Structure prediction request, 170 residues.
Amino acid sequence: MQAFPPEGFEEYFGTAPYFRFIEAAKNEDGNDNSDVLERIRNFPEGATAEDQMRELMNIGVSATAVPSEDNSAANKSAQEAIDYLYRIMKEDGPFEGIIGYSEGATVAATMLLHEQRRYEATGIPPMFKCALFFAGWPPMNPDLDAIVLADESDLTITIPTCHVSKCSQI
Prediction:
């Protein structure tokens, strides 16, 4: 879906058009101004990275929230993104690895966790053998109803991964 970066971030994301995988959840008045992209400019400080993500994602004390009506669009778009990747994998695969940037890293990591669960349930081996994430955000759990934070979950990606968290110009 088409996306619009917060004012002042256009250069950071390169030239338009901009797209994203996961639709922002709507707030009580039906607007998506609760979107993480709108809050990213004032990145919160916290004692841990997990605390910062909880604050940034506006999810309070725990990331293991039960799905609700206000985030059903985000859950649906996340499922659509996973289904889209499975179609690409089926039509154009096999692939050795997956690369994701920013929200794409979230979707890629979520895909890897989903593949692991699918393997446990059906015996279909995961396709990817490695992953590279640039400026990534935490993945969603395979149920697509919460983000995975290290201090709340024992879910881990079992293939080798490389995480590049900050890039600067030379």
Summary: Residues 72-92 form the longest helix (21 residues).
